[in-house]
Amino acid sequence: MRRAIDEVGPYRKVSAALLHVARSEDEFYGPAVTEKYAERLRLRANDVEFHLLDGGHRFPSKAGSIVKPWIQRTFAQPGGSDLQASLAPS
Q1: Taking phi first (over 0 means left), then psi (-120 to 50 degrees means alpha), and beta for anything else, what does residue 61 get?
Q2: Residue 89 lies in a domain
Q3: CA dist., res. 28 & res. 26, Å (int)
Q4: pLDDT above 60 (res 5)
Q5: Cα(85)–Cα(22) distance, integer angstroms
Q6: What CATH number corresponds to the domain at position 74?
Q7: pLDDT tens figures, 16-25
Q8: Per the domain annotation, does 90 fall within a domain?
């Protein structure tokens, strides 16, 4: 029995949270390809967030509303202090 390509190689589970933002009109990696990424990433990571936004192959300026909460959630400090407070100059 042949294993799927995403199972081949020296890959291991990771504890990192993963955020993937794809574009619906990407000239290089269209939705037929990128829509499968979240499922494939979940083979190696428990915390995977995937978003498919309108547009071509570039980082979307509208992704800020996705990235900022993801960063806050992922890098929140124990005890309630947030990332922004921890990065503020002292």
Answers
A1: alpha
A2: no
A3: 6
A4: no
A5: 30
A6: 3.40.50.1820
A7: 999 999 999 9
A8: no
Does residue 2 register a pLDDT over 50? no
The per-residue pLDDT of the chain, averaged, comes to 83
Number of structural domains (the chain) is 1
| Range of the structural domain that residue 31 is part of | 5-84
Report the 3 state secondary structure along the chain.
Answer: CCCCHHHCCCCCCECCCEEEEEECCCCCCCHHHHCCHHHHHCCCECCEEEEEECCCCCCCHHHHHHHHHHHHHHCCCCCCCCHHHHHCCC
Instruction: Judge whether 21 lies within some domain.
Output: yes
> Hey, what amino acid is at 43?
L
